[in-house]
Amino acid sequence: MAKKKNQLDHLAIIMDGNGRWAKERHLPRFVGHREGMENIRRIALAADDLGIKVLTLYAFSTENWARPKAEVDYLMNLPIHFFDHYMPELMAHHVKVNIMGFLDELPPKTYQVTQKAMAMTAQNSGMILNFAFNYGARREIVTAVKQLVSQVQTGTLSADDIDEQHFSKALMTHQFGDYQDPDLLLRTSGEQRLSNFLLWQLAYTELSFTKKYWPDFTKEDLIQVVKDYQMRDRRFGQIESE
Ligand code: IPE
Ligand code: IPE
Ligand code: MG
Question: Is there a contact between 101 and 133 (Cβ–Cβ < 8 Å)?
Answer without folding.
Answer: yes
